[in-house]
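Single-chain item
Fold in token form
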Amino acid sequence: MGYSTKSYAAGSHSGGYFPTGVRWLLIINTALFVLYFFATRFGSGEVFAPFGLVPAVVLNRFAIWQLFTYMFLHSPFGFEHILFNMLTLWMFGKDLETTWGTKRFLNYYFMCGIGAGVCVVIANYLFGDPYTRTIGASGAIYGLLIAFGMTFPDVQVLFSFIFPMKAKYFVAIIGAIAFISSFGANTGVSNVAHLGGMIFGYIFLKTQMSRKPAYARHRPPSAGFFSNLREQYQTWKMERAKKKFQVYLKKHGGGDPWVN
């Protein structure tokens, strides 16, 4: 990570267990880190090279899979990178998965990670080195942070384990740090990915909330690659019935929709 800030959510909404999506993400990321760690120590680290995100390879060789696989690799030269990401995934992800459900949670997680990867490709071509290799789940993790701040804005978190503040303010500070850090050098764990994950997450969640009718906006925002078809269909039926009822009232001279 570009900085050493740590945080946790106080008053968890989901007890202290590991929901299915969070649990498997933790297992897969940790297992791959261990394999990558020992492969590097025994001189076989290049086996993992095709799975890191290299913008020039993505565009010139159509290695589109790297926009997905780079999320599962973490720096094998230290433990801080994966510890921060997995700790944040557990602390903030479990409440989101409990609220949204596993499918929506995972769809949102991967959408943010892939979106962050796209930002890395564009930024490195415009302002950096397209042959720079980026790894880590940070883009998806930062997407979870923005989602937590929007879904549970008033939940208390501890910034650096010391300073209590509301989640919405915590996320704003993290976003500012990511923005400032994105102007620094890419060290293999791109700060552009941090900012990209937050931007994709914010836009997606705001879009989903704005599509909901007024009576449904209190519900948790949808978090999938695509809109929930069943929910859209039910909303369409409700709006259609409302319009038909208004037409009926006009035809029968009823100007007040609350007439008994």
In short: Confidence is low (pLDDT under 50) at residues 1-15, 215-229, 254-260. The beta strands are 7-9, 156-159, 163-166.
